[in-house]
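Same chain as my last thread, 114 residues:
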Amino acid sequence: MHFFRLGMLLSLGILVVGPYSLITTVVSADLGTDQSLQGNTKALSTVVAIIDGMGSLGAAAGPFIVGLIVGYGWLYIFLVMMLFLILSILFLLRRIVKELQTVCRPTVAYVQMP
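reply #2:
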């Protein structure tokens, strides 16, 4: 039974920390190529620290929010999680649309006739 719990905690850690690390890494790499931050390492490090700090703040606030809601039942905890997921999607929607427009842009192939 203890090995099952250990395995579940290990998989939960991998599934939560992995995407979080990928997101902060990708955002940092994307900001590193931005023209407005080119050559300004102090501004870039400030932006990356804000992103990382917000992730840590969310990780700290999550258990606190769960503690407030758990008295009403587990259903409300999952409803609040769904609300946070929807808010995250709304905050990222403009960036998602911009990325999809660049990926789905039709390309024209030129064929040279002999």
